[in-house]
Amino acid sequence: MMDVPSAVIFDLDGCLVDSEPLSLEVIATEMNNLGIDDASIHYVRDRFLGVSIQDICKHVSDRLGKACPADFTERVEDRLLEEYKTRLRQIPDAENLLRHLTDAGVKTALATGSSLRRMGATLDISGLAVHFAGTAFSADQVTNGKPAPDLFLLAAEGISVLPENCVVIEDSPHGVKGARAAGMTALGFIGGAHLHDIRADQSQVLRDAGALEIFESLQEIGDEILRSLK
Known about the structure:
The protein is an alpha/beta fold. It has two domains: 7-18 and 88-228, 3-Layer(aba) Sandwich (Rossmann fold), CATH 3.40.50.1000; 20-87. Helix content is 48%, strand content 11%. It contains ten helices and six strands; from the N terminus they run E-H-H-H-H-H-E-H-E-H-E-H-E-H-E-H. The protein has a six-stranded parallel beta sheet, sandwiched between helices.
């Protein structure tokens, strides 16, 4: 049983919006276009889940033996945001969970490895922006992204909650490690469509990274957190 949290900090992609299948598809396509022919969706998922686009660019540079194209990030985001317009969906129960937490007096924030541009567009297109007015934080705003603690500490500071009173919802080991390094409780989430064939394996990966418990639905997470408040 977890301690009663004052705040819940969410990862965005794969935890509140089912965007990871689209992201993996687009990144793989752009890498293919550069001549990295073995970059499949599974190739990208196995290496880059929860990793910033800057780290992906470093990998691209290593594979190409030369600098990652200057417009790689822009091309990925342009293609992805176009896909979002018709294909982006919320994770089931995302809005219900956010409303219930707010009603219970629990603060919420966002800590995403996405750029500020992508974060803003994702929140707007998904309809979740209203829940994170002034409480959404991007890896663009810190020196070191996940698995460093910087982004989570920024989020806690932004909502005026001590790190030890925060619970983090994450689907990647990088995010879990970052949350733990920040002194926060981490819960693993494996309900995203991108994990449909590796849920058991990902559950163990998240536990090994430091997740206290693993959940397959946001409703289960809400039940656990709200039960701790009673």
